[in-house]
Model the fold of this input.
Amino acid sequence: MEILVHFDEPAWRLVGQRDLSVRLEGETRTLADVIGELTKQFAGLGAELRGQTGDFIPYSLFLNDEVVRWVDVENTRVKDGDRVRVILPIAGGCAQRRRR
Done:
């Protein structure tokens, strides 16, 4: 099966391209298998995706436009043609003044 993966800024710099495909053998595969294949191919990607200490996970994962929590990657099945997106969410906004 072939899974399409899109990396947003800055993760794509570790793999050298924004879009790539991951080939997996077998019928039943999970998002953890996709991440595992990517981390085998690209040194440093696993530490980047999961955070340097392992207890802070900066990147968000989407499978076909649905958010997937990191605790669920082992149980989230993928199928041929699925799309995975890896993004770094950025919190922000403008401060508002309180009126009294």
Summary: The CA atoms of residues 15 and 90 lie 21 Å apart. Residues 91-100 have pLDDT under 50 and may be disordered.
